[in-house]
From TrEMBL:
Pfam families: Mu-transpos_C. GO terms for biological process: DNA integration. Residues 683-692, 699-709 have a biased composition (Acidic residues). Residues 661-717 are annotated as: Disordered. Residues 255-480 form the Integrase catalytic domain. This is Transposase InsO family protein. InterPro entries: Integrase_cat-core, RNaseH-like_sf, RNaseH_sf, Transposase-like_Mu_C. PROSITE patterns: INTEGRASE (PS50994). GO terms for molecular function: nucleic acid binding.
């Protein structure tokens, strides 16, 4: 084998290795004996030496060249046919056989004039006369074949590489990129406007006519090439900003090896409206989820009216650490039913499907969060620190750091939300005529729908992002991947304290007086404070002499105190809790005080709260602030009631939900084991049979407008 792509190693060959030049002085079975520049002799293993990328042979052509395989694969059928014919002619000149002497020869080969015993010059002349080409052309074909093989015979006139932006002034290209980058956060421009701004900038910077600009058609083609894949002129502008925020280099990723290693926390406004029970009006909702990156399982979620608060994010994390804690986390505070025990599911029998509705629980080690205030608040960071959990903030404006969560939000929208009443679409272009008027689910019902879809469908459906490297092609569902990870890990780290929920509540340091403790102007008391009244606490540090009290911003009608004697937790009620029989948040208290100041000089917390909560119950909210507080308070009370009674609405009976979660089942039939949701017709007291069966003579006579309003207004003298 000879050619320009080979190098012969023999005695005297020089090579560079390990920073020195060596000369081959001997060849053994699998060894090369080398002499260095200083005279030392080295015995090197031949295969190991040649495999070292730092070894360079003297005289070897190290210039990178295009791989011939890509050239051959890029040929059209006509070019392949032409190459095959040319290769057969060259091989017949060299060997006398069109197939190169490999395999069975064609009948009649070698033909007269191509006998290998004839001089090569005579064979050139015979082939030139046959093809009607010059001998010089044949010599070039043979030389190219000997140097590069069949690739050398390719007619490169049809395979030349063409740069889409070739021939255009680099200054014009750079200015186009600058103008396009300036429109990343702006509204979408037209190509005409961008080209006009490029021309004006170039004229101002280099002078009129100094930079050669391409023609109109060519300029638009080059501009389209420069903006390819950026949504600069097509697609949504939101997508344009997202594309611009992508990493410019190689994409990196977190590579989890077990469940709970990385937990992704994120919030998003849902593209569906919910109904608030106070005024039966629509309200926007935000979804906060915790996702286990290893299995793509949703381990915690929470729907919040209007906006998400830091306590919502903390309670989502709590649900991820304590599975089957739906009632515990649905109200945003400690419910009356207390913290449920950890549910252990027995292994199903043979042939049964291991499907358990609900969310998986993990003991997180690292949490990836946004830079939002709710995730970087002292509340959430303090909880993670106390539990030994690392917090890893994602890079700002880099959605690829949490691509799995972003993809889940899209799947949720496309496969669940768009089938629900009140769906408004992902943008204004997809919005219906009146999505607010189609709102059907209350906030707690909507959360039940999302939980049911995740637990029964999403977790048991094949996920394209889950795979086992040792078994290529095997697709897992999140539930299967979670079980696979737990079996491979061989260990499970679980929370050790059942009262861990108090770690998710913020702490306030107060002194214990004879009347109890005071927090935000409210006084709390309870029998647990009796041994510590008017005493200095043993705590030292920044809060020397004070006692720690836990409170919930969504319900400041009570606080929680841990007895240092036995470490048990006790509830301290507000002194006027009997006058306000429902829970209220710190936001409601602050707003009620501000409301009372507009009509009275001094603030009475009891009267102000009673007045505000009365308006909440009566549906008399007067402005967006009151309405937002009322929605959160109403959702809180409903969740407390559900936690206390252990019941929840049968969302699965709703026709639309059955159509989504039980595909193929008629919507007019209830699922197996579920009674019909039809309720008897309810009639009012004015629909009794006696009134409905009146004869025409019993109906009141038609009254004129003057007689109707005769007594409506009092006539003053």
């Amino acid at each position: 084998m000879t050619g320009a792509n080979t190098v012969l190693i023999s005695v005297g060959t020089r090579l560079s290795w390990d920073g020195d030049w060596f000369t081959v002085v001997g060849l053994e079975a699998d060894r090369l004996r080398l002499r260095g520049s200083s005279g030392q002799t080295v015995l090197a293993h031949t295969a190991t030496l040649l495999a070292d990328p730092m070894v360079t042979l003297a005289g070897a052509d190290t210039t990178p060249a295009e791989w011939p395989g890509s050239i051959l694969d890029d040929l059209t059928l006509a070019q392949r046919k032409q190459l095959g014919q040319r290769l057969a002619h060259v091989q017949e000149v060299l060997t006398g056989y069109r197939g190169g002497g490999l395999g069975d020869p064609v009948e009649g080969e070698p033909r007269p004039g191509y006998d290998p015993r004839l001089p090569l010059r005579d064979r050139y002349a015979a082939k030139a006369a046959e093809l009607g080409v010059t001998m010089r052309t044949l010599e070039r074909w043979v030389a190219a074949f000997r140097e590069a093989g069949p690739v050398g015979l390719v007619d490169h006139r049809g395979t030349r590489m063409a740069d889409p932006v070739g021939g255009v002034d680099e200054r014009w290209l750079a200015m186009c990129k600058t103008v396009l980058a300036e429109h990343t956060d702006a509204a979408r421009p037209t190509q005409r406007l961008v080209l006009q701004r490029v021309s004006a900038r170039l004229a101002a910077e280099h002078g009129v006519g100094e930079v050669e600009e391409p023609g109109r058609r060519r300029a638009r083609a080059v501009l389209a090439e420069l903006s390819r894949g950026t949504n600069a002129f097509t697609g949504s502008t939101k997508g344009k900003r997202s594309i611009a925020a992508r990493p410019q280099g190689v994409y990196g990723r977190l590579r989890p090896t077990r469940p709970g290693e990385y937990l992704l926390l994120d919030s998003t406004p849902l593209d569906v409206f919910a109904m608030e029970p106070l005024t039966l009006r629509w309200v926007r909702v935000e979804l906060t989820i915790a996702m286990d990156l290893y299995s793509r399982s949703i381990t915690g979620l929470r729907l919040s009216p209007v906006s998400t608060k830091s306590v919502d994010a903390a309670l989502v994390l709590f649900e991820a650490l304590r599975p089957n804690s739906r009632h515990t986390t649905s109200s945003g505070l400690l419910p009356y039913a207390g913290l449920p025990d950890l549910v252990v599911v027995a292994e199903p029998g043979a042939g049964e499907r291991a499907q358990v509705s609900g969310l998986a629980g993990v003991a997180a080690e690292t949490i990836v969060v946004d830079h939002g205030k709710i995730y970087l608040s002292q509340h959430l960071l303090g909880v993670c620190q106390r539990l030994g959990i690392s917090v890893q903030p994602a890079r700002p404006l880099t959605p690829t750091d949490k691509a799995a969560v972003e993809r889940f939000f899209r799947t949720l929208r496309e496969q669940l939300l768009e089938a629900l009443p009140g769906y408004k679409g992902p943008d204004v272009h997809s919005r219906g005529k009146d999505p607010e008027g189609c709102t059907y689910f209350f906030l707690d019902e909507l959360e039940s729908v999302v939980r049911e879809w995740i637990g029964e469908i999403c977790h048991h459906r094949p996920h394209s992002g889950l795979a086992e490297p040792h078994v290529p092609g095997l697709v897992f569902s999140p539930a299967e991947m979670f079980a696979h990870g737990m079996a491979r890990t061989g260990r499970l780290r679980v929370p050790s304290r059942p009262e861990m929920v108090f770690d998710f509540l913020p702490v306030a340091w107060r002194s214990i007086q004879h009347y109890g403790v005071e927090l935000n102007g409210l006084r709390y008391n309870g029998p647990a404070l009796t041994p510590y009244r008017n005493r200095t606490s043993p705590f030292t540090g920044a809060h020397r002499g004070k006692w720690p009290v836990r409170y919930d911003t969504d319900d400041v009608s009570r606080v929680y105190f841990q007895d240092p004697a036995d470490q048990r937790w006790h509830t301290l009620a507000w002194e006027h809790a009997t006058d306000v029989a429902v829970p209220f948040s710190a936001d409601a208290l602050t707003y009620a005080r501000r409301l009372a100041l507009t009509s009275a000089r001094h603030v009475d917390d009891r009267a102000a709260l009673a007045q505000l909560l009365h308006r909440f119950d009566a549906g008399l909210t007067r402005n967006p602030t009151e309405r937002r507080l009322a929605i959160r308070a109403s959702a809180q009370r409903h969740a407390r009631l559900a936690a206390a009674t252990g019941t929840s609405p049968e969302i699965a009976q709703l026709p639309t939900v059955r159509a989504v979660t039980h595909p193929g089942q008629p919507t007019d039939e209830a699922p197996a084991g579920v009674e019909s949701a039809m309720t008897p017709e309810v009639s009012g007291d004015d629909d009794c049979e006696e009134e409905l069966d009146r004869c025409g003579a019993d109906e009141p006579a038609e009254v004129s407008d003057e007689d109707f309003y005769a007594e409506a207004l009092e006539v003053l003298p």
